[in-house]
Amino acid sequence: MTLPGRRRIENRMRERGLRVVMLGCGNVGSEVARLLWEQADDYVARLGAPLDLVGVAVRRIDRARGVDLPTELFTTDAHSLVTRGDVDVVIEVIGGIEPARSLILAALESGASVVTANKALLAEDGATLFEAAAKAGRDVYFEAAVAAAIPIIRPLRESLAGDKVRRVLGIVNGTTNFILDRMDTSGAGFEEALAEAQSLGYAEADPTADVEGFDAAAKAAILASLAFHTRVTTADVHREGITDVSASDVVSARQLGSVVKLLAICEREEGASGDTVSVRVHPAMIPRSHPLASVHEAYNAVFVESEAAGRLMFYGPGAGGAPTASAVLGDVVTVARNRLREVTGVGESTYAQCAISPMGDTITRYHVALDVDDKPGVLAAVAQLFAEHGVSIQTVRQEGRGDDAQLVVVTHSAPDAALGATVEALRSMGSVRGVTSVMRVEGGAE
Ligand code: HSE
Which CATH number fits domain 153-317: 3.40.50.2000, 3.40.50.300, 3.40.190.10, 3.30.360.10? Predict the structure, then answer.
């Protein structure tokens, strides 16, 4: 388009304002609508044009909401709303795969840019959305999809675009962080800490998505895609939740000067035939001196290690209506600016196309606690078994307790499959009475 042509469109949009519609009006949507209303003058000043909320699609119009909006804004016909042809920005806060995907695609085809908080959709099929956006010459922005208010998508996509990210370690699920933090500070077991999280409203009545790591795995896929310029989907993420973390794991961690956290770990490994990427979510022990160990309650944090910048940590509230709305509106302002200038922001970057490394090949470290017979040769036999699997021991601590002893072994790095096989072999050793705690170790010196 010629410059005068672009100026004409820009002036027209400035005069009429930018038309925004929203899909969903729950916790997050209500806060988005409230902020759009309360900060309207600031948005005009920042953009040079008003942001007008012209429609909200909901399932039921008569439901009570956290925001008082004119009834005529509401519709149950989301498809007609996004395809009405004069919408500049569509905010999608309904979540889930369908109908969110079809609605976003229809919105892009109809000429709107999209702001979404939909981590599940982005992690499962982000490529389809980004391709449609590129074809339509529009934006898909999604800062709210990972760790809500914490700016992490923009830093990875833009601020670190001149650097090379090696590793991302994140506490990206507030519910599980709250539970593990309670287990650490009060000695509670998993069930007791979960019940407390539920009573305080941190955990859902059905906590599966959080405690089994599904929510964190979707966020890990999104972070890894951005960090390593490689398409990573939910199916590529190795996922373990926290339901098997016991009070004795937490005590074991404490004895090592560590704490148990559910981590999303995204790593790039250099290999002879190209870089590989491993993406995983599992509980791990991290030293109390690590910055992520000081992330308490339901807070989130993302720790990024990159070649030139070094170590960065992004910290804050990772859930909740208002924090998520803050991230959504930051994106709305950005895509609105782009719409006014008839440009698009940064799109998908997948040039690196690193291979995804299977979990068994991923290099990890283990902490293993076991009860063994306290008699000659047992320690040597245990050490021998680690050696037979090619696993080097970093530290070993033994505590005699009469006719049995507790052994706590921390390994050096080894392929995860070798570590897993070592633990299986320990379980069937005659002199091992029980393996009481097995957990991966992250973030410490080797
Ligand atoms: N349920 C998530 C959490 C928030 O507990 O962090 C939404 O992703």
Answer: 3.30.360.10
